[in-house]
């Protein structure tokens, strides 16, 4: 864990404190002995860092439980994140739901609330109900608990009151509006749903330990979170990853963005329902179609194969451009991929460059519907993980 050239002793200490806290935040309770081996620091340094984090109320230390496998001698102390005391607020404005969670250090969900999002509800109109969730969760938190920030994941696509699908970017006033509504408490950062879900899968899901990946998120539309070298590629002002609007079929259907033949017109929920003869407004029918296909129903099976083929078509293009180690399918694309994985892989193998396709893995997301909330928490925790000494001023 080399320090930056010219770093002061205080800077090195803060960096090392962050490394210890981040490790137990991601991996859970860890003995001092294991931290010494994993982080490349000596025992006395690890001991001092763990003691400092415990004094700040970020971790606890308890003696390691005796086991028959443990060698004789003084047991190593186990460092555990204070999930019940140190937490963040994670919010998500999804295509059809508003959700909120209080998530403790270590990724533990302490409180979870949600309500249906009415069709046509503007992003800023979601501030009042989300703030109500935050107030209720504040009231339920234990005395002395410490909120250290908050984050909001926002879906790019929604349905208006007339049932039409609309595409729009995250409202950049959202964080300020939440702060003003709550008057006191943590500030909120905002991000795109796919970016934040990608972060969650990268830290705690199927992509843990993989630093070059594409996470594809499907709901009413399709977007991507792209991580390269362990860092999220967000684009100008955070508005990158709109892969659902790359044109794959110039003679295809009109898209809500104003173009024609966008990828999401061929792989989104509406495309699956259209090919299966269902109305595009019936989101609940997506799982019914997938179930019918699994049961051998011909029309549903043909719909899944056609959508999966187009899914592989777009994935092949993305793999050629980004050359990731892993492509993760989340949201409604998770189920579509699971049902048509063979078609996706066949199209990928037919189109992608050998140097890109031979190593790339395709996987379904593992965090399910909570991915956006878990990722939002990770985003909000970043300040204290990077600089644990800032915890006193993070509220």
Relative strand content: 15-25%
Structural class: alpha/beta
The portion of residues assigned to helices is 40-55%
User: How many helix segments?
Assistant: 13
Uncertain residue segments: none
The number of distinct β-strands equals 15
Order of helices and strands: HEHHEEEEEHEEEHEHEEEHHHHEHHEH
Task: Tell me the radius of gyration.
Answer: 23 Å
**Which descriptor suits the 3D outline?**
globular
End-to-end distance, in Å?
A: 29 Å
- Widest sheet, order of strands: 6-5-4-7-10
Instruction: Give the quaternary arrangement of the chains.
Output: single chain
Task: Tell me briefly what this model is.
With 395 residues, the protein is α/β, with parallel strands linked by helices.
Structure description:
The chain has 395 residues and is an alpha/beta fold. Helices cover 41% and strands 21% of the residues. It is built from 13 helices and 15 strands. The strands form four sheets. The chain has a five-stranded mixed sheet, sandwiched between helices. Strands 13-12-11-14-15 form a five-stranded mixed sheet, with helices on both faces. A hairpin with a 2-residue loop joins strand 12 and strand 13. The longest helix is centred in the last third of the chain and has 25 residues, at 298-322.
């Amino acid at each position: 864990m080399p320090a930056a050239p010219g770093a002061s002793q205080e800077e090195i200490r803060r960096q090392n404190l962050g490394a210890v806290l981040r490790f137990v935040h991601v991996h859970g309770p860890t003995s001092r002995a294991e931290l010494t081996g994993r982080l490349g620091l000596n025992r006395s340094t690890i001991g001092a860092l763990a003691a400092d984090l415990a004094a700040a109320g970020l971790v606890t230390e308890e003696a390691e439980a005796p086991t028959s496998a443990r060698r004789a001698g003084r047991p190593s102390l186990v460092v555990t994140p204070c999930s019940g005391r140190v937490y963040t607020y994670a919010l998500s404005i999804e295509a059809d739901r508003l959700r909120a969670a209080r998530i403790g250090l270590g990724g533990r969900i302490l409180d979870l609330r949600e309500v249906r999002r009415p069709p046509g509800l503007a992003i800023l109109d979601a501030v009042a109900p989300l703030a109500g969730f935050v107030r209720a969760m504040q009231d339920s938190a234990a005395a002395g608990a410490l909120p250290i920030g908050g984050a909001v994941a926002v879906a790019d696509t929604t349905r208006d009151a007339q049932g039409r699908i609309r595409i729009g970017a995250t409202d950049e006033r959202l964080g300020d509006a939440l702060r003003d509504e709550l008057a006191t408490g943590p500030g909120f950062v905002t991000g795109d749903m796919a970016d934040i879900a990608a972060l969650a899968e990268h830290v705690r899901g199927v992509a843990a330990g993989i630093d070059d990946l594409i996470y594809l998120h499907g709901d009413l539309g399709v977007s991507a979170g792209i991580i390269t070298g362990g860092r999220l590629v967000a684009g100008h002002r955070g508005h990158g990853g709109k892969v659902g609007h790359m044109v794959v079929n110039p003679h295809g259907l009109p898209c809500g963005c104003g173009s024609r033949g966008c990828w999401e017109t061929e792989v989104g929920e509406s495309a699956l329902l259209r090919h299966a003869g269902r109305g595009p407004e019936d989101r609940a029918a997506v799982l019914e179609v997938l179930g019918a296909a699994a049961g051998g129903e011909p029309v549903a099976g043909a719909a899944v194969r056609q959508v999966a083929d187009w899914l592989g078509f777009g994935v092949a293009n993305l793999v050629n451009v980004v050359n990731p180690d892993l492509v993760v399918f989340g949201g409604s694309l998770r189920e579509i991929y699971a049902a048509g994985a063979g078609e996706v892989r066949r199209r990928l193998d037919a189109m992608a460059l050998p140097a890109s396709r031979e190593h790339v893995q395709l996987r379904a997301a593992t965090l399910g519907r909570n991915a956006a909330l878990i990722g939002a928490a990770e985003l909000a925790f970043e300040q204290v993980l990077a600089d644990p000494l800032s915890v006193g001023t993070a509220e």
